[in-house]
Specification:
Largest sheet: 5 strands, antiparallel
Structural class: alpha+beta
Number of strands: 8
Number of domains: 1
Strand order of the largest sheet: 1-2-3-4-5
Radius of gyration: 15 Å
CATH superfamily: Gcn5-related N-acetyltransferase (GNAT)
Shape: globular
Number of helices: 5
CATH class: Alpha Beta
CATH topology: Aminopeptidase
Helix content: 25-40%
Length: 182
């Protein structure tokens, strides 16, 4: 299996988290606007744990969330990447997850980076589908999923994420046949 080390798009560079990214992770995950649909804000210890979890996932699975940087000036924009789940929707799934700093909202960066991760997952991991699990109130994330060819498949009120979510998915067969938007 190929490891997800880095990706590039027209405007973005995605790379693995490093231990020295704590300040960026803290800036992202301690912002109440960013974390509106998450159970809690992270402090420095929480941001460090998040990076440690990503580093372990890189080793175990070859992928996790990636730091998103603007290719033009290197500015930190947030993180986008792939998460492995065994049990959210009663099956094994690869999720495209995205979280950007507020200054990066509204520029299409989440869609651009999420699409690159979705494509990498289909090309390298062989899942039958790629999903995004989205809080039922999080309309901006729903729009990103839809722009990436995902469709809402169901609502899960009881799940390990601790809040009602929608499951958005794009099936491999739809992506390959061209029936799903790219």
């Amino acid at each position: 299996m190929a490891a997800l080390e880095r990706l590039q798009t027209e405007r973005l560079r995605l790379r693995r988290y490093r231990k020295d990214d704590v300040e960026n992770a803290l800036r992202l995950m301690s912002d109440p606007r960013v974390m509106r649909y998450y159970p809690e804000l992270l402090d420095r210890a929480g941001a460090t744990r998040m990076i440690d979890n990503a580093l372990r996932a890189y080793e175990k699975r070859g992928y996790s969330v990636l730091v998103v940087e603007n290719r033009e000036d290197g500015a930190f924009l947030g993180h986008v990447g792939l998460l492995h789940w065994d049990d959210v929707d009663g099956r094994e799934d690869v999720e495209v997850a995205y979280m950007l700093v507020p200054e990066a909202w509204g520029h299409g960066y989440a869609t651009e980076a999420a699409r690159a991760c979705r494509d990498w997952a289909f090309e390298n991991l062989d899942p039958d589908r790629v999903v995004s699990f989205i809080a039922v109130e999080n309309e901006p994330s729903m729009r990103v999923a839809e722009r990436n060819g995902m469709q809402r498949t169901r609502r899960l009120d009881e799940n390990r994420l601790g809040q009602p979510i929608y499951v958005y998915a794009i099936e491999r067969i739809d992506r390959e046949s061209g029936t799903a938007p790219s």
